[in-house]
Design goal:
Helix content: over 70%
Number of strands: 0
Strand content: under 5%
Amino acid sequence: MGIRTLVGMLVVSLALIAVLATQATYSLFLPGLLQGAALTIEIAVLGSLLAVVVGVLAALARMYGPAPLRWLATVYVEIFRGTSALVQLFWLFFVLPQFGVTLDAFPVAVLALGLNVGAYGSECVRGAIQSVARGQWEAGTALNMSRAQMLRRIILPQAFIAMIPPWGNLFIELLKSTALVSLITLSDLAFKAQQMNQNTFKTIPIFTLVLLMYLAMSLTVSIGMRLLERRASLGLARGKAA
């Protein structure tokens, strides 16, 4: 699906929200839902940043780190890929205090979602690095580069383009997973919707707005990642031409 199509869908979804907001039944719920959406975006952005950092570090540790570091990275990836994000969220929020470590709901949400998606992201990074042609490594060796120099100057810039589409999917999954944080008392978009529905029983207007808001946020992520992929590809092409 092209960027123009995604932009068109985003414009339509935002226009629908604006049109519905003019109706009394819908306008009653919009301010509270927007507050919840703001928290959802904050958690998603911070969780995504954490996921990228942890995913890259875990992938590099598994591929090139010393044995203890490789073992730790592998344990992290397998635990967070092999267990439910909901269980991880509950474990950090309800179980850690039993060991004397108490965290507020917001950092727990960012940690749980970031670490969960980072585990999947590490495999994206590892696969992208391995997809770079072996000849690129040989060229770096011929230039007497260290492994760190080859990764920084040759391998990672090429692997970065291959990472973008799967990372985009993971960011959208993380965004949708933020609905889980309502279970640890955070007033995100899902929590606000459930609360309003229980108080008013206006299911159709509430969840119609929620659906359109999640769609708009997901489309924004998709458009951003497509633009990043296009820019990175053009930059690599210019580098090869030079």
